[in-house]
Amino acid sequence: MDNPCPQCGIMNRRGTNACRCGYENAAGGSFANDPGPAQTIRTARLVIALSVGVLLGILLLSWELLGSNLTVWGIIHPILLIVVCAGLLSAGYKLGWFSSP
Ligand SMILES: [Zn+2]
After folding, report:
1. 55 CA from centroid of ligand 1 (Å)
2. Global model pTM greater than 0.70
3. Model confidence over 30-88: pLDDT tens digits?
4. Rounded to whole angstroms, how far apart are CA atoms 40 and 70?
5. Which residues face 11 on adjacent strands?
6. CB 34: neighbour CB atoms within 10 A?
7. Quick count: other Cβ atoms within 10 Å of Cβ 51?
8. What is the 4 CA–ligand 1 centroid distance (Å)?
9. CB under 8 Å, gap of 24 or more: what pairs does 40-46 form?
10. Ligand 1 centroid distance, CA of 47 (Å)
């Protein structure tokens, strides 16, 4: 598996610590060991997905509350979504999932 250079985006072979563009891994490690941009993007995606889940839950809940035919499940469903997503977000922050090394 190849790893992209954080400076120019060219894929570099695993184990190389210098890129054709002149970028050198400051830590002296290989690209494979560098958490770098790929990890940041994964983390950002997770945060965005969970935030969207919370927002969607709030949207669905207000939709349900404003609607004429109110059902118990219509209220519990979005609340569950909000609780699960918000819970995962706060758990992630506590466990350091989102902190960059
Ligand atoms: Zn490069």
Report:
1. 38
2. no
3. 555 555 677 778 888 889 999 999 999 999 999 989 988 888 888 999 999 999 999 99
4. 41
5. 4
6. 17
7. 13
8. 8
9. 40/100, 43/97, 43/98, 43/100, 46/92, 46/97, 46/98
10. 28
Q: Which helix (H) or strand (E) holds 56?
A: helix 36-66
| Phi and psi at residue 26, to the nearest 5° | -60, -35
CA atoms within 13 A of residue 43's CA, in its CB half-sphere: 15
Residue type, 42: R
DSSP 8-class letter at 71:
-
* 3-state secondary structure at position 11: strand
| DSSP codes joined into one string, 15-50 | T--B-TTS-B-TTS--GGG--HHHHHHHHHHHHHHH
Q: How far is the CA of 30 from the centre of ligand 1 (A)?
A: 13
Compute the distance between CA of residue 46 and CA of residue 88 in angstroms, rounded to an integer: 10
Domain regions of the chain by residue span? 1-34, 35-101
